[in-house]
Design a protein that fits this description.
This protein has 161 residues and is an all-alpha fold. It has two domains: 53 residues; 86 residues. Helices cover 82% and strands 0% of the residues. The chain has six helices and no strands. Helix 1 runs parallel beside helix 3 and helix 2 packs across helix 3. The longest helix has 51 residues. The mean pLDDT is 78.
């Protein structure tokens, strides 16, 4: 027989996939050929060791599903960032309103004193000017003070005539 055919038959026999009729014919051939018999034993040992190695249970460790955890973490971070932005916006608005209310109170408190002051004194005019300049340029309080100061000036001019 050809060596490659013998090798395939020996491998099939070692794996246990050979028909009983072919197995008896191969056993008769191996009884007469010593080199083929040693090759058959070597293949049988290799297959036995391979089966023993494959039979051992392999511990498969599955990695945790981190993607699911990261999705929730990302959502939580976005929600907290939105809440922090909201809180900061409310805080800035509250501070701006508080400062605006204080300026309105100052403007209302200063307005009668500007109208009641005598117009002749340069010091009083300078103090009114500094009070007006201390306010923001486009503020309602500044406009009110300017209007009341101009009204006071107009009233003073009429009384002089």
């Amino acid at each position: 027989m050809k060596p490659d055919v013998i090798e395939r038959l020996l491998l099939d026999r070692a794996l246990g996939c050979l028909d009983p009729d072919v197995d008896t014919l191969l056993a008769d051939y191996l009884a007469n050929a010593a080199s083929a018999a040693t090759q058959a034993r070597e293949l049988q040992d290799v297959v036995h060791l391979a089966r023993k190695a494959v039979r051992q249970p392999v511990l498969a460790i599955e990695p945790p599903n981190q993607i699911h955890q990261l999705v929730w973490r990302h959502r939580a971070e976005r929600a907290l960032a939105l809440a922090a932005s909201f809180v900061i916006g409310v805080g800035i608005t509250a501070l701006a309103l508080r400062a605006s209310l204080r300026r309105e109170d100052n403007a209302v408190a200063l307005a009668p004193s500007i109208q009641s002051e005598p117009t002749g004194s340069r010091q009083q005019e300078a103090s009114v000017k500094t009070k007006i300049e201390s306010l923001p340029f486009w503020s309602n309080q500044r406009l009110y003070l300017l209007a009341s100061a101009s009204t006071a000036d107009a009233n003073a001019k009429e009384t002089v005539k």
